[in-house]
Amino acid sequence: MRKLLVYLRAYLRESILGPLLKLMEAALDLIVPLVVAAVIDHGIAVADHSYILKMCLLLIGIGVAGLLFSVTAQYFAAKAAVGFVTNIRTALFRHIQSLSYSEMDSAGTSTLITRMTSDINQVQNGTNLTLRLLLRSPFIVIGSMVLAFTIDLPSALIFAVAVPVLAAVVFGIMLWCIPLYKKVQSRLDSVTGITRENLTGVRVIRAFRKEEDEIGEFENRNEILTKIQKFVGRISALMNPVTYVIVNLAIIWLIQTGALRVDSGLLTQGAVVALYNYMSQILIELVKFASFIISTTKAVACGNRIQAVFELQPSLKDGTETVGNPQNKTAVEFRHVDLRYRNAGANALTDLNFTAARGEIVGIIGGTGSGKSSLVNLIPRFYDVTGGSVTVDGVDVRQYRLEALRRKIGIVPQKPVLFQGTIRENIQWGKKDATDQEIMDAIATAQAKEVVDGKAGGLDFMIEQGGRNLSGGQRQRLTIARALVRRPELLILDDSASALDFATDAALRRSISSLPEHPTVFLISQRTASLQYADKIVVLEEGKIVGVGTHDDLLETCTVYREIYESQFKKDSPSAL
């Protein structure tokens, strides 16, 4: 948490002025009982109306000044707290964006979401309370005791007994609650995780009629969270009744002692009222300070969780190269490539060797889990190889600046992802300054012109978050257009035509083949019909290459490819596009 304080540096002035103004407000609060005592002893006791009026005006002035100090202090504290977490949130989001897929997989999406939302809110609340109460509450407690001793020593001894007992109760309950609040936050992670999982996979859950199972699992985790929260809530609930009992007993003792001393002429009635007010102020401030400590402890725990994300260092180190060797005829080369995911027991890819020439269409096929997506993820360095090397234009991808490398590549992921906004805005993710003509050209190549023409507003049609108002095939074609608009040197299509019919799929491949820039295309597909006209087909099985060649060659030489083909087409019928 301490390392996060660097983000508060821009609000140093507010962080100083807030507590100082709170101290000034507290000083005025300590003066009020003395003024009230003076009104009773020197005004009411002798019926001096002018003195009473003067003191009442003084009390009003103190109240107005205290209000101004309080409002200004609240403003500075809120500004500093909100600005502090704004800086943290911005830096955290930027840091998360810099993490590789490996760190993302390790941390978990639900955990990162909790850090960005719930944890940061706790830090904001803790910072706000710290700036407002860290100095004020101890100042009031200590100041009340000191002033009590200046009023009457025997009566002030009651404070010397009551305050330590109050402090012991308050801080004892607080220390009991702190570890429980940490458990609450970790259980919240679990609930957030299953909630996100269910919302993301709601269609699968309904398709397999698993609603009741998932509701049961959610209720189980939610019940665990609720039980911990109730338990810690019951403990926290002890604070008010116990402290009020102690304070009221102290007040009874104080009034009894004060009455006897007033009766003997050793103490004035105004002094007893002042002592009573100081005892009440001590109670209020101790309860507030305990709540502040609990909130601050939660904030520190959450701050440590946020700091843990900052301490996740990206495993991908940026290179220095910005361009490859334009004379190199090989666009991409895999040399004895191995890939093992973090904490995995075995390699996902083993000893891959093949090349892709410039302008070549390379098909990649294999069974589920054979490593097809893992293979293409190595080209833009979403993951780094654990053995061997991948080169683009003759330069190892690890030597490129990530921005320069990925500028060469257009990627269409296996799951089409669109963002809330117009069709134009979504396509311009591929090229920020793309003109409408460039966008329409990319859309036409992606066989999505009819999609745009059929929507009200054309390019200005508003896509909902995740493309919910589009069909699967429409989403796929628009994501392909988004990759094509940047005119990439390398185009990766990761099973991105699975929702398209055969005719549209064939038209798409013809359009890509006829592009004037002739990009090198990596085409992942489960359909042999989609790959049979590729210049080269790489067949994977259990992370290893078991065949490389053309469609006809592989039918003769590769058993795995022939089995996939025959599972899709009868042996005695020709394949069709």
The helix content, as a percent range, equals: 55-70%
Distance between the termini: 60 Å
Q: In CATH terms, what is the fold-level topology of the domain at 2-310?
A: ABC transporter transmembrane region fold
The biggest sheet amounts to:
6 strands, mixed
Q: What general outline do the C-alpha atoms trace? A: elongated
Number of helices: 20
- Taken as a percent bin, the fraction of beta residues is 5-15%
The CATH homologous superfamily name of the domain at 2-310 equals: ABC transporter type 1, transmembrane domain
Annotation keywords:
alpha/beta, ABC transporter transmembrane region fold, Rossmann fold, six-stranded mixed sheet, four-stranded antiparallel sheet, 12 strands, 62% helix, 11% strand, disordered C terminus
Describe this structure as you would to a colleague.
The relative contact order is 0.08. Residues 572-577 have low confidence and may be disordered. A 6-stranded mixed β-sheet has the order 6-9-10-3-11-12. A 4-stranded antiparallel β-sheet has the order 2-1-4-5, with no helix packed on it. With 577 residues, the protein is of the alpha/beta class. It has 20 helices and 12 strands. It is 62% helix and 11% strand. Among the domains are: 2-310, ABC transporter transmembrane region fold, CATH 1.20.1560.10; 418-487, P-loop containing nucleotide triphosphate hydrolases (Rossmann fold), CATH 3.40.50. Strand 9 (490-494), helix 17 and strand 10 form a beta-alpha-beta unit. Helix 1 (12-44) runs parallel beside helix 5 (136-151), helix 6 packs parallel to helix 10 and helix 19 (551-557) crosses helix 20 (559-568). The protein is elongated, with a radius of gyration of 35 Å.
